[in-house]
Design goal:
A hairpin with a 5-residue loop joins strand 5 and strand 6. The protein is built from two helices and six strands; from the N terminus they run E-E-E-E-E-E-H-H. It has a domain at 3-94: Stage V sporulation protein G (Arylsulfatase, C-terminal domain, 2-Layer Sandwich), CATH 3.30.1120.40. The strands form two sheets. A four-stranded antiparallel sheet has the order 1-2-3-4, with helices on one face. Strands 5-6 form a two-stranded antiparallel sheet. The chain starts with 17 loop residues before the first strand and ends in a 16-residue tail after the last helix. It is elongated, with a radius of gyration of 35 Å. The protein has 150 residues and is α+β, with helices and mostly antiparallel strands.
């Protein structure tokens, strides 16, 4: 066993289960989405940001103002391995959410919409035309049935 992977009790650390939820945003800047992560079904953190840069997308840790005009991370991974695991999970969650949203848009575009309603004037005209086609002409004078007289 590697000493770095052994905790104080002498056992290897448990794998960390990460459940990610992502909320994409429309922004005119580099912010793509916010994310929340639940760790081992025990602890949830909000405020992760998925940001786009010239080098690609990256995850910005939750932060708060430092009082000097900047920001300070409120939390951060200690090991490079866990940082990679956390970043990968959040970016994968973002990709899945974008694919899901694109699928919903495609479904909506493929859904057949009801035709727009006609104006009332057009409906009346269509009804009159239909009625004219279904009216039978009166019988010719020579073909009249003899009416019974009372």
């Amino acid at each position: 066993m590697d000493e770095q992977n052994i905790n104080q009790t002498g056992t290897e650390p448990m794998p960390i289960k990460l459940d990610v939820s992502v909320r994409p945003v429309q922004s005119d800047k580099n912010l793509l989405a916010f994310a929340s992560v639940t760790f081992n079904d025990q602890f949830k953190m909000h405020g992760f940001k998925i940001v786009n840069s010239e080098k690609g997308s990256f995850v910005d840790m939750p932060s708060s103002p430092d009082g000097k005009g900047g920001f300070r991370d409120a939390c951060f991974p200690i090991t490079a391995d866990f940082r990679a695991q956390l970043t990968t999970a959040i970016l994968d969650g973002y990709d899945k959410q974008i694919e899901k949203m694109q699928g919903l848009v495609q479904t909506a575009e493929n859904t057949r919409r009801a035709p727009p309603k006609q104006k009332i004037e057009d409906q009346i005209k269509a009804g009159v035309d239909k009625a004219k086609r279904h009216i039978t002409p009166p019988p010719a004078a020579g073909n009249r049935a003899v009416e019974a007289r009372a």
